[in-house]
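Quick bug: Glycoside hydrolase superfamily output formatted oddly.
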Amino acid sequence: MQLPLTIQVLFSAILHTPSAAALNPSNVLVSTPGQIAPVRAWNLQSSTKAASNLEALSRPGIDTSGWIHVNTSKCTLMGCLLEAGIYNDTELFYSDNLRRVDSKQFQVPWLYRQEFELDPGAGKYFHLLTHGITSRADVYLNGKRVADKKTQAGSYGGHTYHVTDLVDKTNVLLIQPYPTSYYYDFALGWVDWNPWPVDNGTGVWRDVEVKQTGSVALGPLRVVTQLGTPLESSPANVTLKSRAQNLDKTAVTITVTGTVSPERYPGPPITWSQTVTLPPLSTTDVTLTIKISKPAIWWPKQWGSQPLYHAELSVSVYNNTLSDHVSATFGFRTVTSKLNSYNDTTFFVNNRPFQVLGAGYAPDMFLRFSPIKFESEAQYVLDLGFNTIRLEGKNEHPELYEVADRLGIMILSGWECCDKWEAWSYNQDLAVPTPVWNEEDYGIANASMFHEAGMLQTHPSVLGYLIGSDYWPDDKAAPMYVSALKSQDWQTPVLASASRRGFPAFMGSPGLKMEGPYDWVPPNYWYDTEPSASRLGAAFGFGSELGAGVGTPDLSSLKRFLSAGDLTDLWKNPNKDLFHMSTETSSFHNRKIYNTGLWKRWGAPTSLQDYVQKTQITDYEATRAQFEAYAANWNSKRPATGMIYWMLTGAFPSLHWSIWDYYMHPAGAYFGAKVGSRIEHVAYDYVKKSVFLINRSLDKEGARSVDIQVVDASGKTLYSNTVKTMTKPNTSKEITSLDSALKNIKDVVFLRLVLSNSSSKDTGALSHNVYWLSKTIDTLDWDNSDWFYTPVTKYSDYTALNKLAAANVSVTAWSRGHASPEGHSESTVQVTLENHSPVPAFFISLNLVDKDGRDVLPVTWEDNYLTLWPKEKVTVEVSPLGAAELAAVQVFGKNVKGTTVKIG
Ligand SMILES: *[C@@H]1O[C@H](CO)[C@@H](O)[C@H](O)[C@H]1NC(C)=O
Ligand SMILES: *[C@@H]1O[C@H](CO)[C@@H](O)[C@H](O)[C@H]1NC(C)=O
Ligand SMILES: *[C@@H]1O[C@H](CO)[C@@H](O)[C@H](O)[C@H]1NC(C)=O
Ligand SMILES: *[C@@H]1O[C@H](CO)[C@@H](O)[C@H](O)[C@H]1NC(C)=O
Ligand SMILES: *[C@@H]1O[C@H](CO)[C@@H](O)[C@H](O)[C@H]1NC(C)=O
Ligand SMILES: *[C@@H]1O[C@H](CO)[C@@H](O)[C@H](O)[C@H]1NC(C)=O
Ligand SMILES: *[C@@H]1O[C@H](CO)[C@@H](O)[C@H](O)[C@H]1NC(C)=O
Ligand SMILES: *[C@@H]1O[C@H](CO)[C@@H](O)[C@H](O)[C@H]1NC(C)=O
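Here's what came back:
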């Protein structure tokens, strides 16, 4: 544990210097009270290839040179084998190679073994902490079993084992995880998201830690905040809480000291203490409260800054000898939720109604979590204008919440659907072999909830917890979950499920809907909100997981994981089952629904490149419409209170269901979503044929004007108008109808909406948004909707766009080095495009590459897939998120010749 400087200084006076024993201090895992460290590396072996006496194997002196070595604190079996170089994911993810990994090797228990040193002695106590091992495991330390697979059960079953009597100078930890079945075990299942990992995620997927304390040990720190009204100018209370365990056979009087200090900006720490007497061998909640007169309020990124505080609780015994300390980061914010008159849930953050706009997260298929990668993903989320990520049963690791706290992203966590987690007698969708819960199962679920609540409790980014996904927990599990959350001082909303199929009476309706779609629907689907009883996923209420199923990778990514034959299938066999989709038994194993729409609306593709371009247009149109429709209907009669796009990321290189692809290349789905999620925006409602002004800010100032223009495919202006308007913050409204302007479309027209700040000299647009519209919109057959899509009976016709006259667009790209706020140099590239033709230049993609023509990733583009008006000139900026060698920008449009422009 790395303590911030102020805290280290605070404790240096009371810390005992470690005894200068014979041990090499660098090999000692932990040596001071309160110190905690993960076991940093493992030796692995299949139980079929190791001796069967686990007592003996968990004593020193075993030769593990023939075992598999990994230099990482955590990995599933497949994750470990990848880490050790036995498999290679470039090869594994190529075409359908994953099918050929031997699954038999994972149908037996495996062993994770590691030796480490400690410095035991009088007054030193040691603890072994697990945070979940998939799916269950026997745990041995120094020849003794610490826990068997009945106790150490479930991927989220975190336990603290007191092991003082077992530790020695040299210690051997041996963990034997058992094979996982998603039907029988509480694991991290994938439902229909992707092919299942061949090991079913078995193994030590989270850190196993060792902690040293004195005779009194603390559980995780909980921080309870109480804010006044108004939040910003009232004093707040902070209560620090932890479970103090007296490990001694005598009563002890302890001094509990609390410290609260602002992180990252100046401010003195506040320290206060009190004494408490603990009975022998007892567990007592210790609680310390203090008033903070001017709390700095934490906001989601779009609404303000993210001030964080560091909290620390320490206990000392007798002569001020430190026994243990725990710490956490927290922030001052409130989250509440309420059902409106339609029984739809609205969240409130800091008492402001908070429209949730985000997407569902998938971890890596082999659960390889990288805080650095997640930070890039979080940067993408903010670049997109999203405010929330949903985690369905994939709570990951503490670092995820630390990044979200720091960057201002809300996290909606919860349990997963469709497997052991929802094995209720009333679950209609459960896979057949899954048995309903027995006593032991309730115990595992309880321990899981208790542990996760403890891990999440202090994080200001946590929006709430969904204790069910597709189905609500039964009348025994629901109160058990709720009381586990309560006992961990949970302060944000707890909802019974992510759907409206039912709920435990004492909790009330969760107010979230899960009515699809998950596969392609046309853009007008989202705006077709009346009558809401039959309109399923359209933009009203809170959609907990829904989308048009898009997220096709662009060509450069496709070539990384598809063979030549797979690539040909994409455009020549539109109905073929494909490996890089959902599982083969799911409704999403091919692109039939998507491709039927694409073929009907755009005509049969003429080449792979033509197909991929049409997919990008389709994906962009789909995500833009979905995000815009929810944002536009935020203040409608039946408000759209929130929406989680299905999904944010993919667990492997996938052809669908993500905002960006596995390699983090942002393409059509990304930029459609980014336009649709702008903070100040103008959007076109395909059904009402009207323009909506969207304002997701709390404080952006000044009068606004909206410039509206319609041109035909030859560039002739058909309509032009400017609307001046005033709005309220955090509000959307309809500002004008285009019904008559769009009455006589011959084949296709382009509609451009430009929002500007008319009170500012800066002429830059706040939002620039171009639509392509056909004579008629797609006709939806609502009555024949399935759970995953609504069929289209008549498609709109965009084929005229295949015959656009070529546009002559000049492109220049200039690099601009500048110093970042952190002081290191960064470079951004300004790309200027000018359309010299009288016709619109349609859907121009820009791709940043290095000198070998490889994509520079991750990267944020101010805007992309641009459509330029006749004679229009546009400049967009691009910045790589990491250090990168930038060489050129590849340019390609529907009626713009492909070129590569060197960066000057
Ligand atoms: C193991 O990883 C750590 C941290 O990444 C690194 O410092 C160390 O050198 C690595 N050890 C080996 C043997 O590769
Ligand atoms: C994995 O395989 C690819 C393709 O064969 C190769 O280029 C790459 O270097 C390999 N990666 C590792 C870590 O060995
Ligand atoms: C993974 O889970 C599935 C479904 O429970 C099961 O059929 C399969 O045998 C499991 N694989 C392993 C390696 O345990
Ligand atoms: C803080 O605690 C005090 C004492 O219990 C109480 O009077 C006050 O109302 C609390 N403040 C807030 C903001 O809840
Ligand atoms: C407290 O400190 C004094 C002086 O160092 C020592 O004599 C005494 O034994 C200590 N008491 C305990 C309970 O450790
Ligand atoms: C909302 O839920 C309550 C309680 O379940 C029910 O009585 C009421 O009819 C519902 N209202 C609407 C508009 O569905
Ligand atoms: C759940 O776990 C907590 C903490 O271990 C325990 O106190 C409680 O009794 C358990 N509840 C049930 C219903 O098992
Ligand atoms: C959004 O609301 C703010 C705060 O009232 C206001 O200053 C701003 O002009 C609004 N923006 C738009 C696009 O209406």
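Actually, after a second look the formatting is fine. Residues 1-21 have pLDDT under 50 and may be disordered. Closing.
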